[in-house]
Amino acid sequence: MNLIEIDGREPVLQCKYGENAYQAPAALYGSGSADPLALDRFEVVQGTAPSYNNLCDLDRLLQTATHVAAGFDFNRGNVPAIAVACKHGNPCGAAVGSDPAEVVRKALEGDLRAVFGGLVLLTFPVDEEIAEIMMTHRMEAGDRRLLDGIVAPGFSDGARGMLERKGDKCRLMANGVLEMLDRGSLDTAQRFRYVRGGFLAQPNYTFVPDITGEDIERIGDADAGQVDDMILAWAVGSTSNSNTVTLVKDGMLIGNGVGQQDRVGGCKLAVMRARDAGHQVEGAVAYSDSFFPFTDGPAELAAAGVKAILATSGSVRDPEVKDFCRGKGVVLYMYPDSQGRGFFGH
Question: How much is the pLDDT for 94?
């Protein structure tokens, strides 16, 4: 079956197949956008062409990384070094900080098992030190981490040699614009989604909360570190398949409870994944992509040791949720659900 023109456009990249092996042919088509972060602006500097799933993950990584950058730029006036790992369409590792090497370690440690075989995006160039961390950090002696690809502003010659994988299956993709992410890097193009017999259209995901602003209702006061963790948790959670509850601690994603049909289930999953990855939840910050309809979600988080929560308001039981958090000594920041609900990827 041959690839076809779509609105007169030829494919810019042909994939071996689509999401599954029987879904062929498959390809990436460009829209003619001037966006410097459009997927066809990424250069494959080593390895085979990205797969259909790689490209889907890259699109998600860009949503997450640009939201992280926008959140810090808007709330803090600067953008830290960022690392995000993605597996099957959702972030499984993310970290921010001033030291790129430490940021990579934290992103990998978020979930060492899930990141295996995943795609990682960095906002700083990959040199030999970063490549060594990517391949060997927390691995058994003599073993190398298997990754499907690394996306970064650039790669040194030495790093490229260290990251080479049998069969050229570790794709190295470069785009120098990744070093310059800020609040202006969010994708503002209209989003489309095919549905049977037609398609849906909506504006893109561009909301950025002003966490210290007047629209935030506060139960208690978050310290500076907790606010930073709220920014990262919001960026990860609001670019993960909803319903999502996200746990961050010390600038590092430790548990992402994605795609749940009920909010308390998202809380339980986030805590379970954090503990399963070897993390202590005590002292963590949680983000919920919408309001809590009952106190059972905050109860799960508080029992696990979460000390601060960022969520939305809008439930008839908001007063009960606020009273519960106040009684447990859990900081609760809320902005209106109509303004900033974080549903994504339905």
Answer: 98
230 token code pair: 């709220």
pTM of the model: 0.97
Tokens of 303: 């029992």
Distance of alpha carbon 244 from alpha carbon 281, whole angstroms = 17
Give the containing element (helix H, strand E) for 267.
Answer: helix 263-276
110: closest CA among 93, 96, 126?
93
**CA gap 37, 34 in Å, rounded:** 9
Between the two ends of the chain, the Cα-to-Cα distance in Å is 30
- DSSP letter assigned to residue 158: H
Q: 127-166: per-residue pLDDT in tens?
A: 999 999 999 999 999 999 999 999 999 999 999 999 998 8
Domains and CATH numbers, the chain: 35-183 (3.40.140.20), 209-340 (3.40.140.20)
Whose CA is closest to 248, among 125, 132, 93?
93
Q: Say if residue 177's pLDDT is above 70.
A: yes
Beta bridge partners of residue 6, listed in sequence order: 9
